[in-house]
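Handout, page 2. Input:
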Amino acid sequence: QVQLVESGGGLVQAGDSLRLSCVASGRANGSYAMGWFRQAPGKEREVEAAISGIGSNTYYSDFVKGRFTISRDNAKNTVYLQMNSLKPEDTAVYYCAGRYVPLSRQVYFTSAMPSAKNYDAWGQGTQVTVSS
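Output:
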């Protein structure tokens, strides 16, 4: 089982940028699809971005498309979320999630990326607060 540790959260002002990192340990490699989810108080956890194991496929929610960029460096077992033009409504706890997907199946997992139920490894979360 892979272990995930997020970092990079903090308090910023509207319009600022942040880069979140998620380091995977254990059996982490290019066979893990990864996602970034957010959860605001009183709301359900929802996907913001996801990336396939080898980075060939990505998904973005409509809310972050054009502002956030997900990327990965498999040599470092790290997934990033570059967040630009941050808004107060981006305030939430951000979670990194992973799911083992064999290379031959990665293209079929693309449609499953947005759903939290399809991931079985989760980090502890990192708080992002955007002030107006």
